[in-house]
Amino acid sequence: MGFEVTGLFSLLILIADVYAIVKTVGSSASTGSKVLWIVVILVLPILGVLLWLMFGPK
Fold it and tell me: 19-25 contacts: CB < 8 A, separation 24 or more?
């Protein structure tokens, strides 16, 4: 039971990370800003997405 929940949670995090990265790349922000956000999302998957949702390029 625990493995299924962990796997589902990991899949949801992966989907959120990919979504945030795609939206960041497609934004009108500067290249440096995009690179910084992508690095934050990749290094801190959960916190990075939360920070991106609150402060990321719109």
Answer: 20/48, 20/49, 20/52, 20/53, 20/56, 23/56, 24/52, 24/56, 24/57
> What is the span of the domain harbouring residue 40?
2-55
Question: Per-residue pLDDT tens for 9-55?
Answer: 999 999 999 999 999 999 999 999 999 999 999 999 999 999 999 99
Please name the residues in contact with 57: beta carbons below 8 A apart, sequence gap of 6 or more: 24, 27, 28, 29, 33, 34, 37
pTM: 0.87
Per the structure, the count of domains in the chain is: 1
